[in-house]
Amino acid sequence: MSKEKIPTTPAILALKAQKGDFTLHTYSYEERGGTKVSAQKLGVDEHSVIKTLIMEDETGKPLIILMHGDKEVSTKSLARIIGVKSVSPCNPAVAEKHTGHKVGGTSPFGTRKALPVYMEKTIPDLPEIFINAGGRGLLARMPTTELIRILKPTPVSVAI
């Protein structure tokens, strides 16, 4: 990791409070670059870069879904599994209000509100992951077991 100053984000503070086992990795953020760009810049497989997506049900109740960088979420499957009529991505301003993180820097750690967390069931098959640490261009590398220990996400099968 380079010597640049890394901001302390609510996500990093939450990870430290949980005595999380993680290292921080920075890259030059690109608007709309997503996991493809972060994986390329860090030289890792996009499948191991986990997206943090903020969604809401038909009543506006927010939730987090964690997904492999190279996959999409079937919102129909997710809605059926969690027992709601529909699930859709939150408007970026609404997502920021729920999490306190800017879109592009959304982390499941240190969110403003406690939100239910769902995770694609194949994520634990990876020995380690890269996940946003609460800032654009800032990822935390951690064993997948740490993600599960800290967040206790509900596994779901919704990848497409």
Summarize the structure.
With 160 residues, the protein is α/β, with parallel strands linked by helices. Helices cover 26% and strands 28% of the residues.
Explain this structure to me?
The protein has about 160 residues and is α/β, with parallel strands linked by helices. It has one domain (about 10-155): YbaK/aminoacyl-tRNA synthetase-associated domain (YbaK protein), CATH 3.90.960.10. It contains five helices and eight strands, in the order αβαββαβαβββαβ. The protein has helices at about 10-15, 35-40, 75-80, 90-100, 145-150, and strands spanning about 25, 50-55, 60-70, 85-90, 115-120, 130-135, 140-145, 155. Strands 1, 2, 3, 4, 5, 6, 7 and 8 form an eight-stranded mixed beta sheet that branches. A hairpin with a 2-residue loop joins strand 6 (about 130-135) and strand 7. It is globular. The relative contact order is 0.25. The mean pLDDT is about 95.
Helix percentage:
25-40%
CATH topology: YbaK protein
Major pleated sheet:
8 strands, mixed
Q: Determine the strand fraction and express it as a percent band.
A: 25-35%
Low-pLDDT segments: none
Shape category: globular
What is the element string, with H for helices and E for strands? HEHEEHEHEEEHE
What is the tally of helical segments? 5
Strand pairing plus helix content: what structural class? alpha/beta
How many angstroms does the end-to-end distance come to?
33 Å
Any idea what the CATH superfamily is called?
Answer: YbaK/aminoacyl-tRNA synthetase-associated domain
* Top-tier CATH class: Alpha Beta
Q: List how many beta strands DSSP finds.
A: 8
Count of spatially separate domains = 1
Mean pLDDT: 94
The value of Rg in angstroms is: 15 Å
Per CATH, which architecture? Alpha-Beta Complex
